[in-house]
Amino acid sequence: MTTSTATTNTAAQAAPEPDVRKGLYGVVADYTAVSKVMPETNSLTYRGYAVQDLVEHCSFEEVFYLLWNGELPTGDQLAEFNRKGRSYRSLDPGLISLIHSLPTECHPMDVMRTAVSYMGTKDPEHFTPDTEHITHVGHNLLAQLPMVLAMDIRRRQGKDIVAPDPEKSVAENLLSMVFGNGPESPASNPEDVRDFEKSLILYAEHSFNASTFTGRVITSTRSDVYSAITGAIGALKGPLHGGANEFVMHTMLAIDDPGMASDWVNNALDNKDLIMGFGHRVYKKGDSRVPSMEKSFRALAERHDGAKWVAMYENMRDAMDSRTGIKPNLDFPAGPAYHLLGFPVDFFTPLFVIARVAGWTAHIVEQYEDNSLIRPLSAYNGPEQREVVPMDQR
Ligand code: COA
Q1: Pocket of ligand 1 (CB under 6 A)
Q2: Per-residue confidence at 7, pLDDT binned at 50, 70, 90?
Q3: Model confidence at 13, in pLDDT bands (50, 70, 90)?
Q4: Dist. CA 23–CA 1, nearest whole Å
Q5: Cα of 273 to ligand 1 centre, how many Å?
Q6: For a substitution probing ligand 1, which of 280, 287, 329 has the most ligand atoms within 8 Å of its CB?
Q7: 3-state secondary structure the chain
Q8: Could you say which of 206, 331, 339, 363 is catalytic?
Q9: Ligand 1 centre distance from Cα of residue 194 (Å)
Q10: May I ask which residue range the UniProt record assigns to the signal sequence (predicted)?
Q11: Residue 2 banded pLDDT, cuts 50, 70, 90
Q12: Confidence of residue 5 (pLDDT cuts 50, 70, 90)
């Protein structure tokens, strides 16, 4: 051993162990005034308002306005917000042909991600981000992503598109563009529209979750808002995050018989499998959003002959609880709720995108207005420094 290596080793032994938090577990990365998650009381507020109150008393648009502006709108402010947002309900012809050119086998989240990325290429202002531009893009996404989603569903089903209606709310318009306006469409049932809208409110925001944090990281480099949202969609797609709502329904459909739910859960746990729709990085005693979503799911089940899915939900939840104590998260009731509304399972996470655009854009503004490049450190655990051996001697 050479003297210099011995010195290096001694220094390495003396260095304190770095405080590595894998998955940034428990790390507080910044301040936010957008929402507050309180795991000790299973509660969540958006700009100081309890999410359960917002679900009961507000429209999705009011909540969207609140997340952006910090205050609930007056009647005039909401009318202006809606007038502006609804005026953007038309798609660029290039985007329409792009959507139709994408493989019908690809996941619909890939279509959403590609659509936002494409929108960025058509916006000459995209590299001059400021609050006004970010909210302008947010309005566009709120108006156009439901159209992208509806167009994608209907092209896969071989159906013609249904034109957007400037008189309709985001929730009603989306249901009508996906399912049409016939008497059987959920768009024609105000209770279905309202339960769907509640799910959008519950999905709209949740502090520094993985996709929002991704959007903030991208924004922190002074990149543009389309890049931030495109990256956020990529993060949301994963089954440990937004993709879980699809996996919940795939699981329920695979089990099929509620009487088999308990055995299925126990078998999965014996195999050390993760069961989607359960657990949360922050909430350990229950997800604040589940009671409201469960109420809407049960109401949808009553109207749409969904007793089987309620039994499945209860049996899986009880089996998981008695074996592990791990509670359901929002995706667990949202999955079967979207199934009862008639959405194809692959489109559940794109629905989450439409809602979460509200939170993402609020956080992008916050990051932009008080920015510091997000760049953590790593603790190196690879080989010690060594010399390159030339190719002919290896
Ligand atoms: N199914 C089975 N076991 C689970 C579980 C689940 N859904 N969620 C957590 N656990 C287990 C973990 O494997 C871990 O077991 P171990 O101690 O034997 O290793 C233990 O519970 C503690 O997990 P924890 O550290 O609290 O989880 P996390 O914070 O790293 O992960 C999630 C949180 C959300 C990633 C995790 O719960 C999960 O993968 N859930 C399923 C996906 C999902 O529903 N995502 C949507 C979240 S809103």
Answers
A1: 240-241, 244, 274-281, 326, 329, 331
A2: very low
A3: low
A4: 37
A5: 10
A6: 280
A7: CCHHHHHHHHHHHHCCCCCCCHHHCCCCCCCCCCEEEEHHHCEEEECCEEHHHHHHHCCHHHHHHHHHHCCCCCHHHHHHHHHHHHHCCCCCHHHHHHHHHCCCCCCHHHHHHHHHHHHHHCCCCCCCCCHHHHHHHHHHHHHHHHHHHHHHHHHHCCCCCCCCCCCCCHHHHHHHHHHCCCCCCHHHCHHHHHHHHHHHHHHCCCCCCHHHHHHHHHHHCCCCHHHHHHHHHHHHHCCCCCCHHHHHHHHHHHHCCHHHHHHHHHHHHHCCCCCCCECCCCCCCCCCCHHHHHHHHHHHHHHCCCHHHHHHHHHHHHHHHHHHCCCECCHHHHHHHHHHHCCCHHHHHHHHHHHHHHHHHHHHHHHHHCCCCCCCCCCCCCCCCCCCCCHHHC
A8: 331
A9: 31
A10: none
A11: very low
A12: very low
Single-letter code of the amino acid located at 230: T
Told to judge if 76 belongs to the known catalytic residues of this protein, a careful annotator would answer no
Amino acid code (one letter) for 171: A
Respond yes or no: is residue 206 known to be catalytic.
no
pTM: 0.95
Cα(274) to centroid(ligand 1), Å: 7
CA–CA distance, 250 with 167 (Å, rounded to integer) = 35
The pair of structure tokens assigned to 34 is 């957008």
Architecture per CATH, 32-369 = Orthogonal Bundle (1.10)
Residue whose CA lies nearest to ligand 1 atom number 27: 281
What does pLDDT average to over the chain? 95
Determine which one of 139, 206, 241, 280 is catalytic.
280
User: For the chain, which residues make up each domain, given as ranges?
Assistant: 32-369
* Residues 29-84: tens digit of each pLDDT: 999 999 999 999 999 999 999 999 999 999 999 999 999 999 999 999 999 999 99
- The yes-or-no verdict on residue 159 having pLDDT over 90 is yes
CA distances from 227 to 26, 160, 384 (A): 27, 31, 37
> Residues 239-291: pLDDT tens digits?
999 999 999 999 999 999 999 999 999 999 999 999 999 999 999 999 999 99
